[in-house]
Recover the amino acids of this structure.
């Protein structure tokens, strides 16, 4: 998946789509977006335990899971966009969703150590 898809999802989240379904994004946001996507991908990749590559354009391929790219990254991006637009309530809402979903990355039963054998026999 390229950086374009989570960017498009973020634009939909912040309601930057006109009645014809066309994006109404501005040039400044479009110019900053790949670098924000890069920063968010690095954070997610670390949590997923994978190495990352630089994102400098919308055609660059993301290395994080498709699930994280579609379900988590757009909310972090939307939070940054909303904050830069002065929409603090929306930024907080998107950031909260990002944080909650980020915490779910890669959590499996194997991640828990039962050193005291509390779960033995269950």
């Amino acid at each position: 998946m390229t950086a374009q898809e989570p960017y498009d999802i973020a634009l939909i989240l912040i309601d930057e789509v006109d009645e014809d379904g066309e994006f109404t994004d501005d040039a400044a946001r479009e110019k900053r977006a790949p670098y924000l996507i890069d920063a968010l991908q690095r954070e997610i990749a670390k949590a997923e335990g994978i190495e990352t590559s630089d994102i400098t354009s919308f055609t660059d391929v993301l290395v994080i899971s498709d699930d994280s790219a579609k379900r988590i990254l757009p909310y972090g991006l939307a939070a940054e966009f909303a904050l830069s637009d002065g929409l603090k309530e929306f930024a907080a809402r998107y950031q909260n969703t990002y944080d909650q979903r980020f915490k779910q990355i890669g959590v499996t039963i194997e991640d828990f150590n039962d050193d005291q054998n509390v779960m033995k026999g269950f």
